[in-house]
Amino acid sequence: MAANTFGEIFRVTTFGESHGKGIGLIIDGCPPGTLIDETFIQQELDRRKPGQSKIVTQRHEDESFIIQSGTINGFATGTPISIFIPNTDQRSKDYNHIADVFRPSHADYTYQTKYGIRDHAGGGRSSARETAARVAAGAIAKTILKEQGVLITAFVSQVGHIKLEHHYNQNLDTIEDNIVRCPDPVIAQQMIDYIMEIKKAGDTVGGMVTCIITGCPPGLGAPVFDKLHADLGKAMLSINAVKGFEYGSGFESVTMKGSEHNDSFTNENGTIITKTNHSGGIQGGISNGMPIYFNVAFKPVATIVQSQETVDVEGNHAIADGKGRHDPCVVPRAVPIVEAMAALVLVDHWLKQKTVKF
After folding, report:
1. Is the sign of the CA dihedral 104, 325, 94, 62 positive or negative?
2. Domain boundaries, given as residue ranges, for the chain
3. Model pTM?
4. Do 330 and 294 meet the contact criterion of CB atoms below 8 Å apart?
5. From 3.40.50.280, 3.30.70.141, 3.60.150.10, 3.40.190.10, which CATH number describes the 5-352 domain?
């Protein structure tokens, strides 16, 4: 299977399956001397891990990891960094009943069609378990960016019909104060109550993650096929359950006139900025120094604790029964994944664009 590597200079390759011995990653192109903060990596993995609250899957993985190569005394040597994250709480038997059945809206049928074989236990490589490896890599990328003054912060801005209004003007320091990772405590409790209601019904619900990047200098990206927003879009759409990506004014821009949408330039104490930021910090595929912001839409998790009609591998009518441990809503755990993928995109563009100085 190809396409397991992301990035051109800062290249991340992930490996492993949801119910295998573990998952892991190899980073090639990490600059020598980069701080590899194991405590921070663990903190980021803990934000994504299952079993962390009542509104997520109750699979329990401590997400301990082993750095197998590429560092010395806590710093990158410039050689490939290998990190392994063991699986400790997989229950493959929970999936025996669907070994020959295609689950609705899962990757079962498409994987079987493309490769002629699939891992029915947890979906194998198609499982969101793989994203733990991305979060570990993203923690290293975030460390590099933070040292240069670039901060990446994501949060839950919508769950089902419950939406956080004016979500670009929230106090982002409060995101980790509640289990749904919404900066407004009142809206957060409404989201939690709704997720619990959905969970009790054996169903699932989708939501939105908003990400804001500050401190990014002008000049990252390129005007044709390596547009910064295009690479951010690819990164976000590669995350499990993502159905949509919009940056800046996004789809709302279709309702605006050019005179309303254009971001006028001004000089503020010797720095060129824009008076508004409908462009979302990116113009012509290149960052302009303003905050970058975007939304990522997640569908309801495909596995529901209800019986659904489907077919088996022979095309015969079958019933798919939802069993096992699954998220009633994926967005709280998706927050660090969105941040990680954004960090991987920015670090890769920074390393490609050596003329840009932070």
Report:
1. positive
2. 5-352
3. 0.94
4. no
5. 3.60.150.10
Cα–Cα distance for residue pair 67/14, rounded to 1 Å: 14
Digitized pLDDT (tens) for each residue of the chain, 358 residues in all = 568 999 999 999 999 988 889 999 999 999 999 999 999 999 999 999 877 888 887 667 778 999 999 999 999 999 999 999 998 866 656 666 777 888 888 888 998 888 888 877 667 788 889 999 999 999 999 999 999 999 999 999 999 999 998 766 778 899 999 999 999 999 999 999 999 999 999 999 999 999 999 999 999 999 999 999 999 999 999 999 999 999 999 999 999 999 999 999 999 999 999 999 999 999 999 999 999 999 999 999 988 888 889 998 889 999 887 766 678 999 999 999 999 999 999 999 999 986 455 5
